Amino acid sequence: MDASDKPKVVLGVGGGIAAYKACELLRRLTESGHSVRVVPTASALHFVGEATWSGLSGNPVSTEVWDAVHEVPHVRIGQGADLVVVAPATADLLAKAAHGLADDLLTNTLLTARCPVVFAPAMHTEMWEHPATQENVATLRRRGALVIEPAVGRLTGVDTGKGRLPDPAEIFEVCRGVLARGAEVARGSEGAGGSGAARGSGAVRGSGVAGGLGAARGDLAGRHVVVSAGGTREPLDPVRFLGNRSSGKQGYALARTAVARGARVTLIAANSALPDPAGADVVRVGTALELREAVLGAAVDADAVVMAAAVADFRPVQYAQGKIKKKDGEEPAPINLTRNPDILAEISASRARPGQIIVGFAAETDDVLANGRAKLARKGCDLLVVNEVGERRTFGSEQNEAVVLAADGTETSVPYGPKEALADTVWSLVAPRLA
Ligand code: CTP
């Protein structure tokens, strides 16, 4: 790919200790074929120096508007970008962006960019929770910027709490999702006789949306969505459980793509070993009963709930406090099972909010579509994603193939492809159904 055809990303780096993690984000962006211009703030250079940014990006680095003035960098860099991602975004940078201040190259770039803008904040919990920061975040989101929620965990020093920069690999996935979605939007507008601003794989630049950050405002902006993922485990004794093969990948893909489309996401993860998706609030559960409690709690103010988790239909009647031991000459005692509540049927029958959209999944091995239709009716949900499963299909795989059945009778086939593509189709079916 010619350098000029590569999607152009501006990586803004704020002055926080997490600046070192932006090096990893930069590496991922360049290695996946993006042309990256790093624009650090002057204070970011206290943490990671110019040589690192310029060496890793292969592009010149400046913090001020006074370098190469004849190239008008304070305007050109923002105008030419397909995506601006600010990581870490400090409280100060969020405040400046929200108020339109422009006292260095990065803040000027934020004012001139008309492409999607992603902020990945990192700061101490108190700073994140301060009403000033929260109001600035709300302002930026209202204007269309994607401000991803910070992760919870170890902060600088001994503190832990919300405010940690999400994993760079996960921020990268958000960027990829936003660029892909921008390209899709641009293709759609071209098809409809649009401006034809798209170029390369991710271009939404110059789409003509006036006066704001983030031209490609996500269709789930302002929405709260709940996604369950993984597989429940029903304990038999302290060392054994009844479980299933679900890896959580499809549910995590749903969470990631919803973040990229602007939603506030609660991911209820049952026994998944996957890294937390950037920007999602992750609630960890073990059993079906714990999953039910978490889903009911999160669904109270949710616009949509997607039940991608593989929930055990049965659990052992009894839990042995000590490890069940084998005894010579004795047959093992049978394991008695009891039914778990059907969470999907329950939340579909009594919706926490009028107009809430509920999506279920069905894993079938035979008569896939007929069983799927019967299940959609039985569960009472709005959409049912039906996929055929087998030992080497779906579970643990990066790919999936499905048919999405809707209660209104429509069917959408999703060809074999990445789980992210299926996730995006699900959200594209959910979004227009939201009240
Ligand atoms: N589900 C649930 N609560 C359960 C079982 C399943 O909410 N106790 C949800 C799953 O998250 C999924 C859908 O229901 O969205 C799957 O339904 P289920 O009837 O369990 O499907 P299969 O396991 O595919 O079906 P079957 O029992 O028909 O084999």
List the helices and strands and how they pair.
Blueprint: E1 8-13, H1 19-31, E2 35-40, H2 50-57, H3 73-79, E3 83-89, H4 91-99, H5 105-112, E4 117-121, H6 125-129, H7 131-142, E5 146-147, E6 151-154, E7 160-164, H8 168-191, E8 224-230, E9 234-237, E10 240-242, H9 249-260, E11 264-270, E12 280-285, H10 288-299, E13 304-307, E14 314-316, E15 337-339, H11 343-349, E16 357-364, H12 368-379, E17 383-388, E18 399-406, E19 411-418, H13 419-430
Parallel strand pairs: 1-2, 1-3, 3-4, 4-5, 8-11, 8-13, 11-12, 13-16, 16-17
Antiparallel strand pairs: 6-7, 9-10, 14-15, 17-18, 18-19
Helix pairs in contact: 1-2, 1-8, 3-5, 4-7, 8-9, 9-13
The chain binds cytidine-5'-triphosphate (CTP).
How would you describe this structure to a colleague?
This protein has 435 residues and is an alpha/beta fold. It has helices at residues 19-31, 50-57, 73-79, 91-99, 105-112, 125-129, 131-142, 168-191, 249-260, 288-299, 343-349, 368-379, 419-430, and strands at 8-13, 35-40, 83-89, 117-121, 146-147, 151-154, 160-164, 224-230, 234-237, 240-242, 264-270, 280-285, 304-307, 314-316, 337-339, 357-364, 383-388, 399-406, 411-418. An eight-stranded mixed β-sheet has the order 12-11-8-13-16-17-18-19, sandwiched between helices. A five-stranded parallel β-sheet has the order 2-1-3-4-5, sandwiched between helices. Residues 191-215 have low confidence and may be disordered. Bound molecules: cytidine-5'-triphosphate. Residues 288, 307, 309, 311, 313, 340, 342-344, 360-363, 375 line the site of cytidine-5'-triphosphate. Cytidine-5'-triphosphate (CTP) binds next to helix 11 and strand 16.
